[in-house]
Structures are given as structure tokens and as C-alpha cells.
Amino acid sequence: MSKYNKKDKIKAIRLIQNENYSIRAVSKELGISKSTIARWWNSYDIHGEASFSMNPRKYTGEFKIEVVKYMHNNHLSLDQVSALFGIPGTTTVQNWERIYNEEGEVGLLTERRGRSQNKV
Choosing a second label site near 40 at 20 to 30 A (CA), which of 14, 25, 56, 97? Predict the structure, then answer.
């Protein structure tokens, strides 16, 4: 479950849109980090209010590769590519990029969910 609900996110966006608040001012007003407000704004700018209804999902290896390559080829930040592809948060993409850099495409095609099996 998300720390902030859809109502909180829309309130932040409305302050920016309708009240001409800066991201910094909204952060101070609502007690939410600037990076979180900026991420919501970037996602809203691309997907509208639907961005606040997107739920985390299981991603295919091919999708992960596409996202990382798109980010590299277009020189996008983690925030930008997360917003563009509708991925909540940036840590997911950051982990994919790390795996891609360490292991290549094959690393992203490997299922990594759950605890690793230590065979004795």
C-alpha cells in the first residue's frame, strides 16, 4: 500500500496548477519531500490523473530491457523514464539498470522474486 493516497497526490497537483505553488512550496505546505512531489508532477504531466491509479505489476524481462535501453538512448533520468512508462517510484528502474550494467540483457530475463534458494 502506498504511503500517500490518490487524494493527497491530487491535492499536491492542484496546488501547483491552480494556486501557482512551486514544488518546493507544496513540499513545505504538505510535509512531503520535493522529490516525491516532482515524481507525481512528472507522472501527472504524462498520464494525467490516471497516473495515480496505476498499480505496481510484474514486468517481463523484455519490458525491463526496453525501459533501460530507452532511458540510455534518450538520456533520460530515472524520474523521467519511470513517469513515461508508468512505473511507480524510481527504485525499480534503478535496480534494472544496475542488473543490466552488471549482467547485460540476460540478467533482466532472469526471474529474481522471492528468497534465493541456498542449496546445501
Answer: 97
